[in-house]
Amino acid sequence: MVMYQRKDSNAPSTDSLVACRALVRGIDRSGQTLKKIAILGNFTLTGLSECVIAKSYLQDIFVEVFAGAYNQWQQEILSKNLYSFGPDIIFLFLDFHGLDQDFFLNDRSKIATYRKSFEHNTIDMVLRYLSELGSRTKAKIVISTAVKTWPPPHDILESKLADGWYEIIDFYNQKLKDWCRNSGQFFVFDLDQWLSHVGKKWAWNDKYLFVADMRVSPLALPLWAEELVSYLIPLSGQKKKCIVVDLDNTLWGGVIGEDGLGGIKLAPNGEGRPYYDFQKLLFNLSSRGAILAINSRNNEADAREVIDKHPHMLLRSDAFVASRINWQDKATNLREIATELNLGLDSLVFLDDDPSNRLLVKNVLPEVSVIELPNDHTMYPRVLMDYRGFNSFEFTEEDQKRSDMYRQDAARKELKRSHLDLDSFLADLKIEISIDQVSSTMIPRVAQLTQKTNQFNLTTKRYQEEDVNRLVSSGYRLWALRMRDRFGDYGLTGVCIVFSQSDFWIIDSLLLSCRILGKRVEEQFLGHILNLLKAIEPKKILGCYIPTSKNHQVKDFYQLFGFRKTKTESGADFWERDLVDYDFKPNNFIMTRLDKK
Amino acid sequence: MKEKLYDILSRVLEIDRRNIDDRMSPDNTPSWDSFNAIMLIVELEKAAGSRFKTSDLMAVKNVGDIKSLLNRHNIEYEC
Asked: What ipTM was assigned to the predicted interfaces of this complex?
């Protein structure tokens, strides 16, 4: 799998169970924040933990694993150990053989009856345990689908049976998916599909079933672990935001400057198809919230001709939020793109067919994820499909709108160049903000913002949806900022969380998406909130700055509002002011709508 | 075999190859647990390039048994 590209050349081997274990022995986890993973199941999962730890390590994710006792998933769900471990995510792998010993006894006359009892008893039982588990933890919970073995129990007649075994398994799997669909906590890992992909013949129902009740072969454990790790990406804040692509021999075959518009390869069929499919995948990723940018050594006019005029180009100019088409080196271009889009280098992924460019970027900008493309360009689509760095636990409207927003931002920057004075530029933007108390529909986005916002984030506390719900129900005050201007709607892009403790208001979190920074909206946001708090109860307010590698810009933010630094403790600065004499004067070029509830 | 037998054993069981002899078994080797037994099968089959019958594998009680298993399959190996 390609997630692990960044360290490919010197990455330790994780191909086998032994290699994974050897690697695990050498991992120093001291001082690292550990993600906690629990693995439960009804068959032997020995060795999976080692593989997960090793594979996570290659992703710079440090984990601690709770491996449930063999075939005791129900007991684990009902006892305390699992919960005192404090898992961030729980995997539950259930195989039909373990749920019902008689499952594959082929007495055709009894299948219909069997199916009824199965639906009423077994499925019900699994769902009851799932709800129980969900009610006892806020961890994400991932349940696997049941696996169909080949050939079917009734072989070529299987599809003639309305209540055949395949039908029953499909029904069970569908039930699980339906049950999990609208939950932010439960996810289905399609073990059956994954095994079909890698090959059930070697990875499932191997002889290890009889040796040790292992269903997934030990040979397949390292690969399986990679799938588990793909769920850790959104938990660990390693999620990528932008794909930067080369053009010649990456988005199309050939070199436009030499082959010309008619000579390059790009078409839904024939030689150009891999490039066409590759573009299609990039398009799909962008509709999932990734943004695209170009980094190409070319004459801009030549490249634009392809992008604007080639009949089979899927990604036109409007698909890209930034581009550097020039003769500069690619690392400099990447740095400029990151600055233009206000993104950290570590949220960029770089795609280039030329190994020397990849090497340059890896050496000069080690934070950038460089995808190792194979020599055979027909494999490019596969490599991109296997890249999991954009995984997320939720869809949000903002994801779909993100590319639009970055483009509007580019238009805005264009405008910035034509205005010399900042205040008149900002006035010209016709900025409108609204500050509302967080309502239940906003919670997924609020959680997402706490997880993704790095730069303008005073305390960098990461919350899952469940955490936000808990804060709301325990009396915290949560405000959300929405912003729009003449170029478009940025949506929900700021969060402030405050709670009251005897004589103090305490600011738990204050963050703004980097997309809206530099427009003096940040001052308006906190200023209005301080006014609102003063109206509720004019007492002292305490704010805290916890430094990270990225949030230096907000180090002295509270000073702007007359806070005084009272102490510095384990790196964090504590700021304080009295609201009694606070009076915020909103500036006159940002229109503000306040929720005064 | 592609790899020396004692190298496999020392890698899987995490022991010094000099301490390996024919009588070494799960009974006198704490690290020879069920997990490592599985890994031993995986690594042996990989190095030998052949797959053994489950019942033959289950019958292995010590290092000497592994050698006779390899001999019966005419697999050349070094210690």
From this structure: 0.83
